[in-house]
Amino acid sequence: MLLVPCPWCGPRPELEFVAAGEAHVARPSPDADPTALAEALYFRANTKGLIAERWRHLHGCGRFFNAVRHTVTDKFVMSYRPGDPAPDLARLAETLAAEAAL
Amino acid sequence: MRFSFLSLLRNAFSAHRDWPEQWRSPEPKPAYDVVIVGGGGHGLAAAYFLAAEFGIRNVAVVERGWIGGGNSGRNTTIVRSNYLLEDSEALYDHSLKIWENLSQTLNYNVMFSPRGILMLAHGHHDVQSFTRHLHANRLAGIDSEWLSPEEARAFCPGLNISKDIRYPIGGATLQRRGGVARHDAVVWGFARAASALGVDILQNCEVTGIRRGPDGAVTGLDTTRGAIATRKIGVSAAGHTSVVLEMAGLGRLPLESTPLQALVSEPLKPLISCVVMSNTIHAYISQSDKGDLVIGAGTDQYVSYSQTGGLQITAHTLDAICELFPHLRRVRMMRNWGGIVDNTVDRSPILGPTPVPGLFVNCGWGTGGFKATPGAGHLLAATIARGEAHPIAAPFGLDRFARGRLIDEAAAAAVAH
User: Fold this and answer.
1) Which residues of B touch A59 (CB under 8 A)?
2) Quick check: B256 contacting A, CB < 8 Å?
3) ipTM (interface predicted TM)
4) I need a labelling partner for B164 at 20 to 30 A (CA). Which of A56, A81, B1, B285 fits?
5) Contacts of A74 in chain B (CB under 8 A)
C-alpha cells in the first residue's frame, strides 16, 4: 500500500485516497474537433518514469491535489496544491538522478 | 519433430534426457518481412498464424526478457466468451473456437480444459442483469445457462448458498465451453510451432527505437541485439505498449497501465471442479492440475510498472473467497504476484493499424487477455497480412475513440475481466 503525501494532512495510507488520473490535462474548447476531445478524454501519457497525477483525499480532508510519483518504484517525489504550476518532470528526473549518484 | 505416443515411449526408455530443444534460438537476421514486438502468447500466436495461415515465414518475434515471462505467466488462465456486446462476443468466441482444437493444431498439449465458468449473481439486480446477459449470449450463439443457487451448488460442491452471508447468491450463469488452459504450454506450443515454420524467436532482445522513413512509414527497429530492417511491425507488448509506441512517435494512447495481482494456495486434493467468478464481491477461483487454488485479485487504482501491488487488494479478494467457500479459511497462500495490464477506458482491446504506416497494434486487453491469446494472435496476423483490419477486429480500431464508438464492455455488461 502506498503512503500518499497529502499537502494538507501529511502522509496517510492509500486507503484514504482515490487516484484521479493524469494531472494537467487541458480541457479543449467546446468547438474543438472530435480528435481533440478524444485526446483530452481518453489519451494519456502512461509514462514509465516520473508522472504528475491527481489524487483526492476522500476519507480525509476531501480535497484534490497533485503529486509526482515514479511509476517503476511507486515512490512519491512531491505533492502540491491544485493551481500550483506543473513541475518540469524532465528536470526533476535529472535532479533525482544526480542526487542518487552522490 | 512431432509428439506422438511412440516418441514419448522412445524417450521414456532414455529417461527423457534426449528431447531436442523445442524452438531455435538463432542470431537476428538483418531484415525480416514482419517483426512482432513482444514474445508473450499473443505475439507468438501472431507469428505462428502469419507463417501457418498467411504464408509469411520471414518473421521475427523480439522479446525483452524470456518468452512468456510477462502477463502470459502471471494470469489466472481463464478462458470464456460470454461477453455482452455483439462485437465482443464475436471477438472472444473467435478465440474460444481456436482454443477448442489448439492442442491438435499445434501438436502440443495446451491442457485446455472446458470445465465450465460459473458466474455468480448476488442479489436482485445481479440476477436481472445476468439474465439479460444470458439472453444476449444465446442470441449470439454462445452457450450460457441459468442455474438456481441449489443447481450452482450441485455443479460446484462446497459453494456457500446460505441466505445469511453478506451478499447471498441469487443464481449463476454457466458457460460450459469455458474453462482453463495451461499458460506456459500455450506460449511454448506457439513458440515451437512457429519456430518449426521458420519464425525466429529472439529473446533478451529489447526494442530501443523504431525507425521511420521520410514518408513516415516504419523502416526498422533498433534493438539491444542490433538493428533490424522491416516494413511491418506488430506490437503486442501488453502493459508496455505505451513505452514501445512512443518510440514511433505515438506518445499518447488511450491506455493506462496498472498492476493486476493473483495468488496461489498450497496444493490441495481436488476440491473445486470448475471456474467460479463473482464480479460483485470480486473473486475468481479455480484449481490447477497441480492442486493449487488459483485466485485472481483486482487492479490497483494508480498507473504503475512495478509488477507488484498493494496487499489490501489481495486481502479484499480473499475476504470474498472465504465467504463463498468457508471451508477454505485455513488454507495457506503460497505466492502472490502482479502483472502490468494496459487498460482502455471502455475495457475493450485495441487491435488494428495505427496512424503510422506499417505499424500495427494489439493492446488494451486489460485484465482479460489470456482467453484471447489464439484469437488475438490470429486477428493481428490477418491484419498485418492484409494491411487492414480483419472484419472481427475492425470495431476495435484505435480510431473508435475519436468517433465516439466505444465498446463499453465494462459498464454495459458489468463483467469483471
Assistant:
1) none
2) yes
3) 0.95
4) B285
5) 302, 304, 306
CATH of the domain at A41: 3.30.2270.10
- Structural domains in chain A (count): 1
Which residue ranges form the domains of chain B, and what is each CATH number? 25-108+182-254+346-416 (3.50.50.60), 117-178+256-344 (3.30.9.10)
Q: Which of A15, A47, A72 minimises the CB distance to B306?
A: A72
- Residue in B244, B305, B400 to test binding to A, most A beta-carbons within 10 Å: B305
Query: Per-residue pLDDT tens for B374-400?
Result: 999 999 999 999 999 999 999 999 999
pLDDT one-digit tens code per residue, B73-86? 999 999 999 999 99
pLDDT tens for B235-258 read 999 999 999 999 999 989 999 999
- The answer to whether A38 contacts B401, with C-beta atoms less than 8 Å apart, is yes
In this complex, do A43 and B302 lie within 8 Å of one another by their Cβ atoms?
no
Q: In this complex, is the C-beta atom of B252 within 8 Å of any C-beta atom belonging to chain A?
A: yes
Range of the domain at A74: 3-101
B198, B58 contact by CB (below 8 A): yes
Its pTM stands at 0.96
